[in-house]
Please model this.
Amino acid sequence: MNLNSPDREWKKGSAELLVLSLLEGRPRHGYDISRLIEIRSGGSLRFHVTSLYPLLYRLEEQGLVQGKWVEKAQQRRRRYYSLTSEGRKVLARQRESWREFVAAIGRVVEPEHG
Model:
């Protein structure tokens, strides 16, 4: 795949939306985020740690998520990520932009009625 292909940029932009959306309800660790994306997409979308963790680190650097190490008995420690107030604002804007984009695509690809 061409590294500058629209498909790659598309996936990059939607990855952020997916991750922020899953963190809206409660804090989650990386494996949980990855698993939920795969399950909720019916297996169509998969994020491996090699791409998910750099995204989480970038979102944390941007102040959209906050990570916190949590240790539980007889489990290795995990970093749980949660949305910041700025992350919630960005998520709301991204959702609206996504809805507008999907509606525009729909208007183009659907047959005209008339």
Strands lie at 28-29, 65-70, 78-83.
